[in-house]
Specification:
Radius of gyration: 17 Å
Strand order of the largest sheet: 1-2-3-5-4
Strand content: 15-25%
CATH superfamily: HIT-like
CATH topology: HIT family, subunit A
Number of helices: 3
Order of helices and strands: HEEEHEEH
Bound molecules: guanosine-5'-monophosphate
């Protein structure tokens, strides 16, 4: 079944569109975290970032940069977070990859509030484990 975002791309569900290319669409989030909270999606319906063909990923990043700049300028050069919830445990609800562009001003909640520490030599082991997959 088509994702809710594919239905938006196909015009079956309305959205407040701010930007569109052949491959991407950007529109305002219906339940914003902040005023101006915008979603940037590839029109190709894939679940996760790594599922996106590289050419689409490059194109998505170019559109994301343009949209983020426009959102920022629309609010006097405001700061913003770019967030990709990749998978359910990362908070992904809509199963169609999307970047959130969320304006942030003084006093906005900070991401990454929780920090942990590596045990002795653990950092090197984790680095090696990740390098194994390139
Ligand atoms: P996720 O948690 O999957 O990263 O975020 C999904 C986002 O999509 C949420 O912030 C939610 O408010 C937004 N959203 C869900 N359904 C719709 C919709 O039909 N229209 C719009 N504009 N946003 C939606």
């Amino acid at each position: 079944m088509a994702s809710i975002f594919t239905k938006i791309v196909q015009g079956e569900i309305p959205c407040e569109k701010v930007f569109e290319t052949d491959s991407e669409l950007a529109f305002l989030d219906i339940m914003p975290n902040e005023i101006g909270h915008t979603l940037v999606i590839p029109k190709l319906e894939v679940l996760r970032l790594e599922d996106l063909p590289q050419s689409h990923a490059i194109s998505l990043m170019c559109s994301l940069q343009k949209v983020a700049k426009a959102v920022s300028l629309a609010f006097d050069g405001i700061d913003y977070n770019l967030i990709l919830n990749n998978g359910a445990n990362a908070g992904q609800v809509v199963e169609h990859i999307h970047f959130h562009v969320i304006p942030r001003s003084e006093g906005s909640p900070r991401p990454f509030q929780k920090h942990i520490q590596y045990a002795d030599r653990e950092m090197q082991k984790i680095g090696a484990r990740i390098r194994n997959y390139f």
